Structure formats: C-alpha cells, structure tokens
C-alpha cells in the first residue's frame, strides 16, 4: 500500500499517525484517571511523569502529522454524504488537530506555572514556558481539564460516526483508515 494518501484512501503514513496518536490519547486518559484516584505520593508522581512524557510525544507527533498532511491531501469525503455531515466531519477533524496541540501545550504550561519539571522518559527535561505563578496554574489546570472533556466528547462523536459509516452507510470511510483492508467499493458485484 502506498505511503501517500490517494483520492480514495489514507496512505500508510497517515494511518500510522492516526492509530499511534489515538492509542496515545487512550493511554493519556487512562494514566490521568489512575493518577487522579491516588493520594499525593511517589506512585501518583510516577504516573503523572509518564502522562507528561506521552503527552509531549503527542505534541511532537502532532507537528509531524500536520506537516505530513499539508504535503499529502487526505482522501475526498464520499460523494453521498449530506452537506451537514460533511461540515460536521471537517469540523471534528479541525477540532482534533487544534486539541492535539492545545492539550499538551496547556499541560506543559500548567507544569511550568508550578515549576514542576517536565521530563521526556527521564532522557531530558523540557524548559519551563512561563515563570512560577499560582493564578496561572489554577487557570491552566482548569483549561487542561475542560479541553480533555471536549476531546473526550469529540472522540465519542467521531467513533460513532466511523461506526455509522461502516455498518449503516456501508461505505469505505472506516476501511480507508485501516491498514490491510480492501475497499468495499473495489469488491466485484455479486
Ligand atoms: C494529548 C495530550 C494530553 C491529554 C489527552 C491529557 C489529558 C489529561 C486528563 C484527561 C487529565 C485529567 C483531568 C481531570 O482532572 O479530570 C489530565 C491531567 C493532567 N495532565 Fe494531561 N493530558 C495531556 C498532556 C499533558 C502534558 C503534555 C502535560 C504536562 C507536560 C500534562 C499534565 C497533566 C497534569 C499535571 C495533570 C494532573 C492535573 C491535576 O493535578 O489535577 N498533560 N490530563
Ligand atoms: C481519540 C482518538 C482519535 C483521534 C484524536 C482521531 C483523530 C482523527 C483525525 C484528526 C482524523 C482526520 C485525519 C486527516 O484527514 O488528517 C481522523 C480520521 C478518521 N478517524 Fe479518527 N481519531 C481517533 C480515534 C478513532 C477511532 C477509535 C476510530 C474508529 C472507530 C477512528 C476512525 C477514523 C476514520 C475512519 C477516519 C477517516 C475519516 C475520513 O475518511 O474522512 N478514529 N481521526
């Protein structure tokens, strides 16, 4: 399968970015909720350190993914989609791209405002983006939490839409984002 996207399906690079980042987002929510239930201590800090490292990985991957997308146009939406559906699909994708930057950046800014270090799997430490500031920390913490709720809601909508396309509309929208699949429309008529 070609690396680059074609007018009918996503290429391997776009698919790899999609599923790797999706898996990291699930990891991020899992780590954050596990940490949330723990009292302050070594275990909570270890989970949050992992959360920060994976979060910064999302930021780096989001930059690469966006650059790749700017050079590789995604496939066209299926021609049968209603205008409202097309607007919703595009708005969801734009919102995702914004959140893939806003989530890590708000987390990084939040940690900076408390002067908590942000390391990348213990290999190096990211610099603080702003000086220590309790008011900014509270604001950024709420922002990070609200953005995570928005991301969660959009992800549910997005997954339901993908399943609707596959099981209800029976079009190629899900298949063309999956590796090693043949497009349904390419199958011969019975
Ligand atoms: C895609 C990336 C990220 C996602 C999806 C994400 C998601 C979340 C979620 C769902 C929570 C729990 C919010 C709540 O209290 O209900 C959380 C908390 C937290 N996140 Fe992230 N996060 C991301 C990136 C980052 C980064 C890059 C950092 C720091 C460098 C970070 C630092 C934190 C911290 C310190 C908390 C705990 C805040 C508290 O004490 O309540 N996050 N994150
Ligand atoms: C929370 C994790 C996820 C994120 C952040 C995410 C993000 C995105 C983004 C940004 C796009 C647009 C790609 C582009 O054109 O550049 C996209 C497309 C797509 N996603 Fe996801 N996604 C996630 C999870 C999922 C899951 C779990 C499924 C399957 C059930 C899925 C199915 C699809 C499909 C089928 C497309 C292609 C839509 C089209 O052809 O227009 N995504 N996703």
Could you please describe the fold and organization of this structure?
There is one protein chain. This protein has 190 residues and is an all-alpha fold. The protein has a single domain (12-186), classed as Up-down Bundle (Fumarate Reductase Cytochrome B subunit), CATH 1.20.950.20. The protein has four helices and two strands, in the order αααββα. It has helices at 12-36, 42-71, 83-113, 134-169; strands spanning 118-119, 125-126. The chain has a two-stranded antiparallel sheet. Strand 1 and strand 2 (125-126) form a beta hairpin. One protoporphyrin IX containing FE is lined by residues 18, 21-22, 25, 69, 74-75, 77, 89, 93, 96-97, 155, 158-159, 162, 173-174, 176-177.
Topology (SSEs and partners):
Layout: H1 12-36, H2 42-71, H3 83-113, E1 118-119, E2 125-126, H4 134-169
Antiparallel strand pairs: 1-2
This protein binds protoporphyrin IX containing FE (2 copies).
